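Open question from group meeting: does this chain pack into something compact, or does most of it stay loose? Before anyone orders reagents, we agreed to write out a predicted structure and look at it together. Recording both the input and the output here so the notebook holds the full record.
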Amino acid sequence: MKYIFSLAIFLVFSLSVSTQNSEIFTDFGIGLLSHQPLKTFHEGLSEQLTIEGFETTDNYGINYGFSIGFKINSIKTSFFFQNKVAGAKSSVADFSGYIRLTDELRGYTFGGIYEFDLQQFKKGSLSFGVKGLITSSKLIVKSESNIANSFDNDVLNFRSIDFGSGAIMIYRYPLKVITLRATLGADFYIGGKLKFEDMKEAHLLDSSGNKVTTGWSGLNLGIGIAFPLAN
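C-alpha cells returned:
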C-alpha cells in the first residue's frame, strides 16, 4: 500500500504542475456516525468473553485520516487520495496477565469532487460539491493474551471494496501564498462486505449471522490548506 500512496502523491504533483489554473491541497478529516455494523460485530465478539472486568474502551467512535489532491479550477473538479483509520478495543488486566481484543479498520480512498459556486464573500468563498468515491478497506481483528507467562496471539485479516458518493461544503479563505480550507460533508456507501483475505468466498459474520460491512457512511469534518498554482 505504501507504493500506491507514493504513486498517488506523484500523480497529484505531476498533474497539478502540468495543469494551469490549479491548486494542490491537503486536509485532515474526522468522520462521525459511521461503522455501525462493525460496532455491533465488536460488541458481540467482546460479549463472548464472559470475564469479570473485561471492558470496551473504544468502539469505532470516529474515523480520521489525511487526504492529498489537486483541483483544476477551470473545470471546477478535484481529484484526491485519502487514507483513514478507525477501530475498537476491549481488554482486561490484573496481576496474572492480560487479555486484549482489538479491531483496526484501514481505508484507502480515491475520489473526485465537482463543485458549484454558492457564495463569494469579501474575504473567502463557499462552494458545494458532489463526490464519487471508491475505497479499498482492510480490517485486522487481533486477540492477544498473556496469562501466567503463557502468550497467545491470533490475527485475522479481511478486505472489501466500497463504492460511494457524497456531498460536501467547502469554505476557502485565501491568504498571501496559501488558502485555508474548511469542509463539512456526508458520505454514502454501498457494498463493502468484508471477506477473509485468504478465503475470498468466506464473509465476516456478526453474532446474528449477518454479513458485516465496513460502514464508512457518515458525516465528516475537515480542515486543511491549499497551494494555488499560477497560470
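Observations to bring back to the group:
Residues 2-18 form the longest helix (17 residues).
Strands lie at 22-32, 55-59, 63-72, 77-94, 97-121, 124-147, 150-174, 179-191, 195-196, 218-229.
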